[in-house]
Specification:
It contains 15 helices and eleven strands. With about 525 residues, the protein is of the alpha/beta class. The protein folds into two domains: about 270 residues, Peptidase S8/S53 domain (Rossmann fold, 3-Layer(aba) Sandwich), CATH 3.40.50; about 120 residues, no CATH class. Strands 2-3-1-4-5-6-7 form a seven-stranded parallel β-sheet, sandwiched between helices. A two-stranded antiparallel sheet has the order 8-9. Strands 10-11 form a two-stranded antiparallel sheet.
């Protein structure tokens, strides 16, 4: 008899209401009883007013420039002549028409997979300390060695977890293949349906158990082919993301990742390597109101595309250079839907943050999807400077759901009374995907561009607002839910209050932000 590994299917309390009402992020809490950001209500209020275009930089993994719902929405560098192979504006980047790809070279080669930041830090420290006698170290070297021990432990634990994950899914795959064989013999055909699995006679006890197992697999949106893909992906992670010897950066770009001044690299291929993530971000911010597909939050935007996210962790140097590029090319808002638990050069990003703050550029960042407290566990970039102060132009966003009930905070969302400013819709949000298509997406990666879109609308209709003022307005005008206590985190049934997990204690709301501006006479 086949022995099945115990497979626990965890269903988080994700609100299915959003699937009933596509585009729920635009609806109004008061009029529609949905915790959207009141986009449509805001535009109705603003319908007789004029707006100016706002440049929003999307620092991500690129974007599909041909998507039907984004045509005319991409920023164009008017100081560059497309396709002439000349750096017309003399900024060091040739033919940067819609932005820049910091993960490629002039030959058109581009990075796909990369290592994790933890792997890179481990590789550097391991080369230095692997054969060093701790007792002979003093001062800063001893501190570095202690850091090495911590990093080494974390790295080895990551490798162990990845191997365990591979083993788990391999066993599930073997069980599925054996179950599939038994069911094909039982039904005497190669294909069977869920209804046929449900109808298996209770008298066939063994086949019934097999059928129920396969039903659980299908309900979890898994299949033999998907499981094979998961196993192969995880094996590839070991070969790339967690491999200290893997150095695609050196092979393709050849720069010094530890030198911010070594900055003239990359190419203009911002749509390379299947930019599914950045395409979704771009659509959430600025998809056209054209009657097809989806509606973005902001109508009058120009999206500057900056590719820094590989399949692995982004480099601090690339993030810093992308922020500086956005600032130098007059972006007014920067969306950063990424993060990582380790940072090799936070000082690079800090330098760029200070430049953005001085230039009055708002940076909107996703809080992360680990269900953790960012006040105590850092997600980089953090928005904090080395001296402990927080950038005034930095706004950190958590994810919320559609119903005003105890599950209104997405269970995966990070939080923090000091480090997370506000929440915004981030579950089952209609997004643009590759091939001019659309799909539901969830994550703080979606919540951040919702707020970036809100900020862009405010800047578009109230152009004199500064980045600091826009941040203050978004926070102070937040919609405060009626539900007093909410569940927090994926694994816990602990309840808390919204004002204990964010600065604002509420959900971003465009309509309320506009009313706040006019009441305070900004």
């Amino acid at each position: 008899m086949i022995k099945f590994f115990l497979l626990i299917f965890i269903f988080f309390p994700i609100d299915s209401f959003a699937q009933i009402i596509p585009g729920w992020q635009h609806l109004d809490p008061d009029k529609d009883s949905v915790l959207g950001v009141s986009t449509y209500r805001a535009y109705e209020y603003l319908k007789s007013r004029k707006s100016k275009p706002v440049i929003v930089a999307v620092i991500d993994n690129g974007a599909e420039l041909t998507h039907q719902d984004l045509q005319g929405q991409f920023w164009i560098n008017v100081n560059e002549i497309e396709g002439n192979g000349i750096d017309d504006d003399k900024n060091g980047y040739i033919d940067d028409i819609h932005g820049w790809n910091f993960l490629g070279n002039s030959k058109g080669q581009n990075i796909g997979r990369e290592t994790k930041e933890l792997t890179r830090i481990y590789a550097d420290l391991n080369n230095k300390f692997e054969h060093i006698d701790k007792d002979k170290l003093t001062g800063n070297e001893l501190k570095d060695f202690e850091k090495y021990q911590k990093v080494r432990q974390a790295y080895l634990e990551s490798v162990k977890q990845k191997k365990n994950e591979i083993s788990l899914y391999q066993n599930i795959l073997l069980n599925c293949m054996e179950a599939d064989r038994i069911l094909k013999e039982y039904f005497k055909k190669d294909n069977y349906t869920e209804s046929e699995l449900i109808a298996i006679s209770k008298n066939d006890v063994h086949v019934l158990a097999v059928g129920n197992y396969m039903l659980n697999i299908l309900k979890s949106d898994l299949s033999i082919s998907k499981l094979e893909g998961i196993v192969e992906k995880n094996k590839l992670d070991l070969e790339t993301r967690l491999n200290p010897e893997f150095n695609v950066r050196r092979e393709i770009i050849g720069d010094n990742p530890d030198d911010l001044n070594d900055c003239k690299y990359g190419n203009n291929q911002v749509n390379t390597q299947g930019p599914y993530h950045g395409t979704g971000i771009a659509g959430t911010i600025g998809a056209l109101y054209n009657g097809i597909g989806i509606d973005g939050i902001a109508k009058n935007v120009k999206l500057m595309i900056l590719r820094v996210l590989p399949n692995g962790d982004e480099r601090d140097k690339d993030v810093a250079l992308a922020i500086l590029y956005a600032v130098n090319n007059h972006a007014e808002i920067i969306n950063c839907s990424f993060g990582k638990p380790w940072s090799a050069h936070p000082e690079f990003v800090e330098y760029a943050m200070r430049k953005a703050e001085k230039a009055g550029v708002l940076i909107v960042h996703a809080s992360g999807n680990e269900g953790q407290n960012n006040d105590s566990i850092a997600t980089y970039p953090t928005g904090y400077y080395a001296d402990g102060t927080r950038a005034k132009n930095w706004i950190n966003v958590g994810a919320s759901q559609s119903k005003d009930n105890e599950n209104l905070v997405a269970p995966f969302s990070n939080y923090g009374i000091k480090s997370v400013d506000i929440f915004a819709p981030g579950v089952d949000i209609n997004s643009c995907i590759l091939g001019s298509k659309y799909e539901l997406a969830s994550g703080t990666s979606v919540s951040a561009p919702v707020v970036s879109g809100i900020a862009a609308v405010l800047k578009s209709y109230y152009p004199k607002l500064t980045a600091t003022q826009i941040k203050e307005i978004i926070i102070h005008s937040a919609y405060i839910p009626n539900t007093k206590e909410i569940y927090l985190g994926e694994q816990t049934k602990k309840k808390t209050k919204m004002n204990f997990i964010s600065v604002s204690g509420g959900i971003a709301n465009l309509y309320k932000a506009i009313l706040y501006i006019e009441a305070k006479k900004y």
